[in-house]
Amino acid sequence: MSDGKGGAIVLSSGGLDSTTCLAIARAEGFGPICSLSFDYGQRHRYELTAASRVAAAMNVAEHCVVKIDLRQFGRSALTDNLPVPKGRDEGAMAADIPITYVPARNTIFLSYALALAEVREIADIFIGVNAVDYSGYPDCRPEFIEAFETMANLATKMTTAKRLRIHTPLIRLSKAEIIRRGMELGVDYSLTHSCYDPDKLGRACGECDSCLIRRRGFEQAGVVDPTVYITKCG
Q1: Residue 229 placed within a domain
Q2: What is the rounded distance in angstroms from the CA atom of residue 132 to the CA atom of residue 173?
Q3: Is 232 part of any domain?
Q4: CATH number at residue 50
Q5: Are 10 and 18 contacting, i.e. CB atoms less than 8 angstroms apart?
Q6: The predicted structure's pLDDT at residue 2
Q7: Among residues 39, 34, 38, which one has the least CA distance to residue 6?
Q8: Structural domain of residue 168, as residue ranges?
Q9: Does 1 fall in a domain?
Q10: Which of 2, 29, 130, 146 makes a 20 to 30 Å CA pair with 100?
């Protein structure tokens, strides 16, 4: 229920972070909420099924799916015929920008959210980026978000009436802290999907960076991970 803050757009991938972000937006009194997902040619399209489940479970006012094709640019294991890294330790994950980085993805997603916000006259956009367990993605850094928010307020006619804000409530939290916060808000993490390389049934591989980060987060949070993994932990 809204406390008068007005509506919000929440970028939703169906993953752990974006779902927690959606729960936080609701808890902070924003509403009505529109969740915004993208069918961008990703090999792990099962995440769109998860995003739909989350939207229904959280009773968002509207769930929009925008279809774009980032496969035509490629150069990412998520949109190209490249292997998804498996079984890497934390040092290897942090050594360089991983091949699962999709060039300019968050810039593109936020631009669509900005356009929708301007049309709907909504001043608040939520995105679940994280600068702690973020796998080295440059478009998850606080500096990027700050720069985009500045640009957004220069680029739209909304600036004459209200200032647009990009909310990043998870940006300085560890994965364990994100999970604990979600549990406090009653998030059902069995609805979410994190794997970069699921099988045809949508089961998580258990070995990609995203699976390993998720597993570690649940372990450190002391919470049972409801994910069905193909590869058993340990």
Answers
A1: no
A2: 6
A3: no
A4: 3.40.50.620
A5: yes
A6: 43
A7: 34
A8: 8-221
A9: no
A10: 146
Residue 26 counted as domain residue: yes
Mean pLDDT, residues 134-156 taken together: 91
Count the residues in the chain.
Answer: 234
Q: How crowded is residue 65: how many other Cβ atoms within 10 Å of its Cβ?
A: 14
Q: How many domains does the chain have?
A: 1
Return the structure tokens found at 143: 């500096």
Q: List the alpha helices (DSSP H) in 28-131.
A: 46-57, 90-94, 105-120
> Residue 180 corresponds to which amino acid?
R
pLDDT at 135 over 70: no
Largest CA distance in the chain: 56
CA-to-CA distance for 118 and 123, rounded, in angstroms?
A: 8
pLDDT band of 210, cuts 50, 70, 90:
very high
Stretch 114-135: mean pLDDT: 90
Please determine, for residue 139, whether its predicted confidence score (pLDDT) is greater than 80.
Answer: yes
How far is residue 227's CA from residue 170's CA, in Å, rounded to a whole number? Answer: 21
Which are the contacts of 200, defined by CB distance < 8 A and separation ≥ 6?
none
Q: Would you say the pTM of this structure is higher than 0.90?
A: yes
102 in Cβ contact with 84 (< 8 Å):
no
Q: What strands lie across the sheet with 165-167, from one edge to the other?
A: 62-67, 33-39, 8-11, 124-126, 165-167
Which of 3, 1, 20, 48 shows the shortest CA–CA distance to 188?
Answer: 20
Contact (Cβ atoms closer than 8 angstroms) between residue 11 and residue 18: yes
Amino acid (1-letter code) at residue 161: A
